[in-house]
Design a protein that fits this description.
single chain, 188 residues, alpha/beta, three-stranded parallel beta sheet, 8 helices, 38% helix, 13% strand
Length: 188
Amino acid sequence: MFFGSFNPIHIGHLIMANYLAEHTDLNEIWLIVTPHNPLKKKAGLLNDFQRLTMARLATENYPKIKASNIEFDLPQPNYTIDTLTILQEKYPDKQFVLLMGADNLAGLPKWKNYEAILAYYQIYVYPRLTDKKVPDYLTDHAAVKMIKAPIIEISATQIRKDIKTGRNVRPVLPPEVFQYIDEMNFYK
């Protein structure tokens, strides 16, 4: 499970998801488009279905990566532990793993019931350049698996700013997503 606002989804997200799909024991990567992350402001987010459309466009040629709207009908803000509980009930035969960047691992203690996440789920952590210090008790935790992978530093926030100021963002977006954003005049 790779949770995110995906506002917009970019090639950094796809590189991370594809790397984990191809270089770990995971069978599939589910991109969970989150309507409202409780640790972020909702202002500036595109409509949930527009972000889901971009995620689906971006992943249509990746058989191991799927976009999900599982959180759309859940109470907001969305809490990862609640979503994982519902997914486990809905798919009791599946074993879920949480995927996140090292920057998010540093903030894990702020999450609702983060201890339960550590107790019941593995967390695969993708490297990020970050100033945030990740406590040793998290990096050394039995549930946390630090992945050695290429570091990709692309920011959706920067992409939105660049679109607003008329800069070319084509290289950092999947072509289908760039076309959709351009046609819909998003982020301008």
